[in-house]
Specification:
alpha/beta; D-Maltodextrin-Binding Protein, domain 2; 2 domains; six-stranded mixed beta sheet; 9 helices; globular
Length: 301
């Protein structure tokens, strides 16, 4: 259900936003606003609130994985996307394999079983895109063993996706025990039985980024569509404080900006992730970048 907001004056937004360097100044109160108050009511791990956001409308604002937003857009969920990245990183280091069968190269994962939390997880979409376009791996020729369903209830996994048994071990333990050939996880286990699929993942990612002219983006900020429609002043203020919070954060030690802001700066990564999502059957058509924003948010730069 779309929330109702006052026609003028301050607004209070039930917000799902995790703790990151770029959000610290906002969440600590260092960055303030007289127009927008954030009620930070989400779980510590923001992705645990994504289902409630897109299925129940439990939050009026907050971060959302970009692939989840693409599916929400397709299924008509009342959300407006701001061109503000609150979580981004390289992804190459998130895929590894069990060494029981020897060394495994990226192009050799065809026919294997790889675990992932959910087939629609944004990290997985990025990595499968890299595997397809850099190593010729058809994602449908890999069996993806998933432990959760998609954030959007309307989506059904494709035939090459297998659901882990209800009482299965955790994905990391299945990887360590060799029950899976490999897995995509946030951080690979520090164990000799597991190696990264890309031998030097950070160096490989650093080579990938200039080739594609972007960095992988994960979580962007969204708001209730009705707020964006009726209170563009509030949405502009949200963008201002998010940007100010980012600017208050120390630069990434890598020297890379993983949190681009503005519709212009986000054009390239959004073009790429929408392409990958379409190719992998996450959404049935490729959105244009312009249609991902509304009349208010598309002007934020």
């Amino acid at each position: 259900m779309t929330a109702a907001f006052p026609n003028a004056g301050p607004v209070t937004l039930r917000t799902n936003l995790a703790d990151y360097p770029v959000t610290r100044a906002l969440k600590s109160g260092e960055i303030k606003s007289d127009l927008v108050r954030f009620d930070f009511a989400g779980p510590k791990l923001a992705h645990e609130g994504f289902k409630a956001m897109v299925r129940e409308g439990r939050f009026s604002a907050g971060e959302l994985a970009i692939v989840t937003y693409l599916q929400a857009k397709h299924y008509g969920k009342p959300l407006a996307l701001l061109p503000a990245v609150v979580m981004g990183r390289f992804q190459h280091q998130c895929i590894g394999y069990n060494t029981k069968h020897g060394t495994l190269k990226p192009e050799e994962i065809v026919g294997r079983r790889f675990g992932i939390r959910s087939y629609t997880q944004t990290t997985g979409v990025w990595i499968r895109g890299v595997l397809q376009h850099e190593h010729g791996v058809d994602p449908t020729k890999v069996t993806w063993v998933c432990f959760e369903d998609a954030h959007l209830a309307e989506y059904c996994d494709p035939p090459h996706v297998e659901r882990a048994p209800t009482r299965a071990k955790k994905i990391e333990q299945m990887l360590l025990d060799g029950d899976l050939d490999g897995a995509i996880v946030g951080a690979l286990p520090d164990d000799p039985r597991v190696r990264p699929l890309f031998p030097d993942p950070i160096a490989t990612a650093r080579d990938w980024a200039p080739k594609y002219g972007t960095v992988p983006i994960n979580h962007l900020f969204v708001v209730d569509a009705e707020l964006s429609k009726t209170r563009p002043d509030a949405v502009q203020e949200i963008y201002r404080v998010l940007k100010a919070s980012k600017q208050a954060a120390p630069p990434d030690p890598s020297g890379i900006d993983f949190h681009p802001f503005g519709a212009t700066a986000l054009r390239k990564p959004l073009e790429l992730i929408t392409q990958y999502a379409f190719e992998q059957g996450i959404v049935p058509r490729k959105f244009s970048v312009d249609e991902l924003f509304d009349e208010t948010t598309g002007k934020l730069d």
